[in-house]
Amino acid sequence: MIIQKRTFYFFSLFLLLFFSQLNYAQEQKTAKKENRGRLFNDTTATDSDYLMAIEKAGEVLESAYNDIDFAGDTRHLFGDMKRTESKLDLILASLKGANPNVRNQQMYRIVLQEIQQELEEQNKAINDRNLNLENIKKRVIDLRKDKTLITLLKDTIRRKQFQKEFGNLRRRYVATDSLMTKNQTTLNNKKRLTVQRKISVSNALATVESKLEKSGISIFKKEYPSLWQINDTAAKKRVTHNIKAKIIIEENVAAYYLSYKAGGLITLCFFMGLLFWYISRNIKYLKTNGYAENLLLLNFKYLNRGALLPVLVIALNIAVVTNLYAPALFLELIQLFLLGVLIFLFKNQWSGVAMRNWLFLLGLFFALCFLDLFITIGLLQRFAFVAINILGIRYGLVQIKTLKEELYIKGFFKWASIIFIGLNVLSILYNLFGRVSLSNMLSLTAFISLTQIVALSVLLKIILEIILLQIYTTRVKRGIEKMFDYESLSDTLKRPFIIVISYMWLIVIASNLNIWESLRSSLTKLLSHPNTIGSITFTLGNIVLFFIIIWAAHLLQKYVAYFFGEIDDENEENINKRQHSKLLITRLVVLISGYLLAVAASGMPLDKLSILLGALGVGVGLGLQNIVNNFVSGIILIFDKPIQVGDVVEISSESGRIKSMGLRTTKINAPNGAEIIIPNGNLLSQNITNWTYTDNFKLVEITFEINGETIPEEINTTVNETLANLPLVNNSKPSQIYYSSISDGKYKLLIKFWCSIYRTEETISSARQELYVSFKNKGLTFSS
């Protein structure tokens, strides 16, 4: 109808332009009579006016032709429509031939929803282009309002004068009309295909939702006959053919998903490559500098065997969690590959019994995946599933204990064992009573939950080993070779990671049980529901996010020191004060950024925030002066640097070494072992004696007497040689020798020399002993 209407308009214009002859002679006679009396009236249009009118009409037709022609964005739209069609055909073919497992159905649902959105956008784009063609058509029709052009058309004599121009105009019109017909037909065909595809997607989504519903725990009606009521009607000769057909389908779906997620997978590989380089560089540095044996002292279980396998374990665990809606073949291949990598990591680490039990578990898991993907649901598959479930229950009761003793996390393994046994029992019951899809889903979830907790336990241990390697490498580069208490440090570091590991495990289980999406949507609805108290509106999600960010900021500022190689028992003589200052600034930036981000995430309006800041200002004025004073003083100490971590100071009646500096207080280790906590405000308001402001050396002195036949020159030589042989004495600065009394055979001396302020007493004691031995060897009496 649209095409007919458009053709009518163009045809009418064409008749108007080239065949308008009605009443022309009568009009000419009337015009001559009128013109006789209008000799001095306005003249008619000139040839120039007619040429301009023809040129204007030609420009309109030319621009209409250019606008009608499909541009690059339209051709890109047609390319997108072809790709959408290919995806839809693949999904529809897979729906007909693949086994109705939960993983594939979840992936189908996600892809179909995306295709549905794409079709809506494509349909809107086609409508916009159709509307654009209608607007172009109106521009051409508006040429009939040009009075100069209409006058020329009615004048037979003058029209012949512009015959060539009218011929060009006619050719432009024919070309525009032809292109309009062609493009509008193309758009109408594309729109018809889009509507048909939308119907196909709606039907496919209904089918997928139905299959997912059948595998849901909440549905109790029979899906298949009970196990004792069926016969396997599939011909044996067709089993091989069916397996090949299903393999092709699963391969096509997995290949599509791989191309669909190629960007994310490449990004993951890139970051894992950086991690591999980082670990290898640290290990190579330690081995090159003769610290390879010290790595054994850190009790590494996985990094001692190279960086490739640990990095693969990290990458595959991330791939499992970030591809929750991947097709079954893709995800189960990743799972099997991950478990295969663990075999090489466990080799020569686990006992023979534990290793055999692990391999047996992998064999059951492989058989389960093969049955679920490639064997049509029937008597054979159902009996095979029951057999695997029975073996799984026996494994959970008897053999699983050998795995627990080899794992880093043993607490979660108890829950994994209970879930494993319980899901296998439920799978047998559902299989017996005809709930085959649900039974298969529970079986796969049981084995995935058990194997995944093993993989996540290894993942946690690898992460801790990477952090310990970083700490030790940084300390070695700073010249600190002392081994630290890695076990207690690991226990401290693993706590936040256990939360992350638990979250990953629960996501995998919920996704395989087909309840993650509903849980996530319910939780999202709960957290995003607006609540109003007085004039303030907030959501529970904003509050939770606020506290999570605050917790993460405090955790990060606490643990950031470990990445600089800083721990509590480090050698005080090798403290890098500049690094400590950078660390304090980093902590300050992390805390401030965390609080600002938390406030922004809370969604608190600025007007309400200004009221809160005003109330806070009143609080500062009334009772928080000291807290704010200490906080500001801490910032001043960080940037002004009158004292730094590791300095030996005297403040009022207290003295000791600066252990740590915070935003509110500073901790000092006293010589007697006490820890003195001083508010930062007090530090700035008192005189501070900093013994290590420029260096870590202190001038010390020893007084003694020498009795015997000698001269001062020999005494001076003996003292200088003795002090030069003491490693604790700083010989870069010359020692000073003073005589307070000289008599025959009796000399009183005062010696001053430089040594490390951290080992003053030890150096003085060593100097006395060595001087005593040196003078005694010369037959002189030494007393101090």
TrEMBL record:
Q: Which UniProt keywords apply?
A: Coiled coil, Membrane, Signal, Transmembrane, Transmembrane helix
Q: Which membrane topology term applies here?
A: Multi-pass membrane protein
Q: Which residue windows are coiled coil?
A: 105-139
Fetch the Gene3D superfamilies from UniProt. 1.10.287.1260, 2.30.30.60
Q: Where are the transmembrane segments?
A: 254-279, 302-322, 328-346, 358-377, 383-400, 412-433, 453-472, 493-513, 533-553, 584-603, 609-628
Q: Where is the signal peptide?
A: 1-25
UniProt subcellular location? Membrane
List each copy of the Mechanosensitive ion channel MscS domain by range.
626-692
Which family, according to the similarity comment? Belongs to the MscS (TC 1.A.23) family.
UniProt-recorded name of the protein: Mechanosensitive ion channel
